Amino acid sequence: MRQKDVPTVSQNIPNVTLKNGVQMPILGFGVFQVPAEETERTVTEALAAGYRHIDTAQGYQNEEAVGRVITKSGIPRDELFITTKLWIQDAGEERTKRAFDTSLRKLGLDHLDLYLIHQPFGDIYGSWRAMQDLYRQGAIRAIGVSNFLPDRLIDLIDHNEITPAVNQIETHPFYQRTLDQEIMDKRGVRLESWGPLGQGRDDLFTNPVLSGIASAHGKTVAQTVLRWLVQRNIMVIPKSARPERMAENLDIFDFTLSSEEMARIATLDTGASSVVDYHDPDTVAWMGKRRFD
């Protein structure tokens, strides 16, 4: 299947246009830390709520469950946008191609919409060569990376032919990644937020600034945070196991935050991750030893 033969995703959720012209929903559904035995129910409910972008990964160990839901859903393939990711131990040119084939088989698909290098470790340059080949063959509509700090991202861009379409990084009110976004915007890379709700850490849902803004709009803190991100042109993939929360997270396109409200949220930035430090050698060593066989 050639990329130009794949129709544009058309849903009520607004799309963003990636550097190569591919349309991607600005809001999707993530399945990180969703056990395989719960994934079918969760993704089925997400699709019923109206989500059409599903974000999974080799490392989440639930690609097969996602694939079963896609097959059973009856939703036309051209209305779905499916992302998965390559884990560290399968980095390298040949291993990446094998891992891609495995992910495609588990998902029951003949092509992917977006394929990401999950972590900036291992033979990422060999992986990128393989992903460029798969992209040129039409097996992937867009390729990108995840968790790349600006220095690693720019190095990858400057020494390869194809620029990553997306960099999926931790982004939320307490870690706003403003400089990262500025650098990415200059290079045509779209920022996609994982953990957009800060994984509920640091009392995000009771924060007085966020609560006050949410109350003024008759919305929840979660809706306010997601709205703040999409107004920054950041793609988001919130996760929830509850259907009512799934629907709530979609209901963010009927209000707008003022510039003053955006500025108030900007004051919450700590400039540091609440989850993982990619500068920490122990973190790098720990990730490099994690296997998902």
UniProtKB/TrEMBL annotation:
Substrate binds at residue 118. It comes from Streptomyces curacoi. InterPro entries: AKR (IPR020471), Aldo/ket_reductase_CS (IPR018170), NAD(P)_OxRdtase_dom_sf (IPR036812), NADP_OxRdtase_dom (IPR023210). The active site is at 60 (proton donor). Keywords: NADP, Oxidoreductase. The keyword Cell wall biogenesis/degradation does not apply. Belongs to the aldo/keto reductase family. Residues 33-268 form the NADP-dependent oxidoreductase domain. Pfam families: Aldo_ket_red. GO terms for molecular function: oxidoreductase activity, acting on the CH-OH group of donors, NAD or NADP as acceptor. This is 2,5-diketo-D-gluconic acid reductase. The record marks 85 as: Lowers pKa of active site Tyr. SUPFAM superfamilies: NAD(P)-linked oxidoreductase.
